[in-house]
Design goal:
There is one protein chain. The chain is mainly alpha-helical. The protein has 2 domains: 152 residues, Tetracycline Repressor, domain 2 (Orthogonal Bundle); 28 residues, no CATH class. It is 61% helix and 0% strand. The longest helix has 32 residues. It is flat, with a radius of gyration of 23 Å. This is TetR family transcriptional regulator. Keywords: DNA-binding, Transcription, Transcription regulation. GO terms for molecular function: DNA-binding transcription factor activity; transcription cis-regulatory region binding. Pfam families: TetR_C_1 (PF02909), TetR_N (PF00440).
Length: 255
């Protein structure tokens, strides 16, 4: 379940009722004239593949019809427009992965797993960061994912609004990290400069500025302060979990 704000507003041109029908399997087949081999599942799969490869802007009904080898009007028999298609794409990628074994960890492991899975989700589907999901149309994928996370963190003993708050807080943290990582990857692609080459180009100027004495605190940092060996995501995640741990312990003591 993602809740990124900003980017495309898929509600434009989207029919909420129709999207719900499609998401919950109540209207996935065209009334007439289906093209053999064309299904709603295949359309959504191709749309996600195209968005992963070229970004959400590349996904249009005309482009999809070309990729699928069918006429554009054939697609409209399955899905009314791009807004509804994005609703289906979001639910598809938010469907939780199948688990080989039942989850046996505690609430801390549950939050941690949710955070790591969300980071992987954004890295696998960078276009998610450009979709406004402030008002999602909930399908079986998103609902199933939310139910799974709640079942894992329920033992925290917090109130229901607080449990939802844990999810919102964790997701907000991961989204920020994911945005930075995705932007870094996009910058390398656009500029052709690696991360190392980019900072190496600035090194002479920065060294001269640091020696000027104008920024003594920054200049006094150790050489590895901004190095690649420090895992900022892991550091922040563990501090978030430590804070929740303190809250759970206090609630248990009060009880």
């Amino acid at each position: 379940m993602t809740s990124t704000n900003g980017g495309d507003d898929r509600r434009t041109g989207s029919d909420i009722t129709r999207s719900l029908e499609l998401l919950w399997g109540e209207g996935g087949r065209p009334a007439r004239g289906p093209k053999p081999g064309l299904t709603l599942d295949r359309i959504v799969t191709e749309a996600v593949r195209l968005a992963d490869a070229e970004g959400l802007a590349a996904v249009s009904m005309r482009r999809l019809s070309t990729e699928l080898g069918t006429g554009t009007m054939s697609l409209y028999r399955y899905v009314p427009g791009k807004g509804d298609l994005v609703d289906l794409m979001l639910d598809r990628v938010n469907t939780p992965p199948e688990e080989d074994e039942p989850f046996t960890g505690g609430w801390r492991e549950g939050v941690e797993a949710f955070a790591r899975e969300t980071l992987v989700l954004y890295r696998r589907h960078p276009w998610l960061l450009h979709v406004n999901q402030a008002r999602p149309v909930l399908g079986p994928g998103a609902v199933g994912g939310l139910d799974r996370v709640l079942s894992r963190i329920k033992p925290m003993g917090l109130t229901d609004p607080e449990l939802v708050g844990v999810i919102v807080m964790t997701e907000g943290y991961v989204t920020g990290v994911a945005r930075t990582q995705v932007h870094e990857m996009e910058a390398v692609t656009r500029s052709g400069l690696s991360e190392q080459d980019f900072w190496a180009a600035q090194a002479p100027t920065l060294e001269r500025i640091m020696k000027s004495g104008r920024y003594p605190t920054l200049a006094g940092l150790t050489d590895d302060s901004f190095g690649p060996d420090f895992d900022h995501f892991e550091f922040g995640l563990q501090r978030l979990l430590d804070g929740l741990d303190a809250l759970v312990a206090r609630r248990r003591a009060e009880a």
